[in-house]
Specification:
The chain has about 290 residues and is an alpha+beta fold. The protein has eight helices and 22 strands.
Length: about 290
């Protein structure tokens, strides 16, 4: 089977979608800084993986223990459990076996800087109920908490080694081509409607713009290349990547949800962007063709 890779870079819009360690009563967003002296929030690849696996309904791989270390059960194989087919495993129970992830994710990094916005939170509703029920008792609770908030566009990239899906040399397993295609297409359909539940909210992580395809070269061509300036996609940057090789240009598809970026017409004309449904349909077809 020819070596081919699927890669998609996407922009999503979300608010406060991944928190790290808090300080006191302040819930802190995960953040990184750049040389421009700005701070950018991000959604970790682990968080994205969690939501993808959960929404694909493949988070049923049995677990085991090696001492105090939780890991996948040594008898679990990729034939029965797509989760470890797509995202790999490490089984340290002797004999130790590892399989690298075939589906890889980057962090989803904000394209707009964080400006130290804070939300003040109270449990006033419960406190008032408690006050009414305990009129003659000392009142406790009702402390104010703080939570960092940031609404932004985020960009992240997914890559898939299509020729390694469904193959595990550790267990000498090769699943049928039809099942391999089914797993990758299920992944694509999950990305199309991805969401994230956090702090009582459901954040829509479906892409507003996506670019990618199935290529002979396993390079995430558009990773770190999707930039926004004044709510406009930097089209010239994308055109520069497409101009690197005719193979890239020939096999690249672009999906767009109109009305959210200020240069929709430029994206459509310069990058031949299609509706998002058409973008994912084209990728599904490319995956099906590869596994025939």
């Amino acid at each position: 089977m020819n070596k081919k890779g699927l890669t998609i870079s996407m922009i999503v819009e979300a608010e406060s979608a991944n928190y790290g360690e808090g300080v006191g009563n302040v819930a802190s967003l995960k953040k990184i800084s750049r040389g421009d002296h700005e701070v950018y929030t991000y959604i970790s690849r682990q968080a994205l993986r969690y939501n993808i696996v959960e929404q694909m309904d493949i988070n049923h791989t049995p677990l085991g223990m090696d001492g105090s270390v939780i890991q996948f059960h040594p008898d679990a194989t990729i034939a029965d459990y797509p989760e470890i087919d797509l995202f790999g495993y490490m089984k340290t129970v002797k004999p130790t076996r590892t399989r690298a992830a075939v589906v890889r994710l980057s962090n989803a990094v904000a394209l707009e800087s964080y400006n130290t916005d804070l939300e003040f939170l109270t449990n006033k509703g419960l406190f008032d109920r408690h006050k009414s029920a305990t009129a003659n008792e000392e009142l406790r609770g009702g402390n104010i908490a703080q939570s960092e908030i940031h609404k932004s566009f985020y960009a992240y990239t997914l890559t898939v080694d299509l020729d390694k899906i469904g193959i595990d040399t550790n267990d000498q397993i090769e699943i049928p081509l039809e099942e391999r295609a089914k797993r990758v297409i299920s992944l694509l359909r999950t990305l199309k409607f991805l969401y994230r539940d956090i702090k009582g909210r459901r954040e829509n992580l479906a892409p507003i713009i996506a670019i990618g395809g199935v290529y002979d070269l396993k390079n995430p061509f558009f990773e770190n290349r999707l930039k926004l300036q004044n709510n406009k996609l930097a089209v010239a940057t994308v055109e520069g990547i497409l101009a690197l090789d005719s193979h890239i240009q020939q096999h690249t598809h672009v999906g767009l949800v109109k009305g959210l970026l200020a240069n929709d017409e430029e994206i459509e004309q310069s990058l031949q962007a299609k509706p998002m449904a058409d973008f994912f349909a084209q990728l599904e077809q490319a995956v099906s063709d590869y596994y025939k």
